[in-house]
Amino acid sequence: GENVEQHPSTLSVQEGDSAVIKCTYSDSASNYFPWYKQELGKRPQLIIDIRSNVGEKKDQRIAVTLNKTAKHFSLHITETQPEDSAVYFCAASMATGGYNKLIFGAGTRLAVHP
Amino acid sequence: NAGVMQNPRHLVRRRGQEARLRCSPMKGHSHVYWYRQLPEEGLKFMVYLQKENIIDESGMPKERFSAEFPKEGPSILRIQQVVRGDSAAYFCASSPAGGQYNEQFFGPGTRLTVL
Question: pLDDT below 70 — which residues of chain A?
Answer without folding.
Answer: 97-98
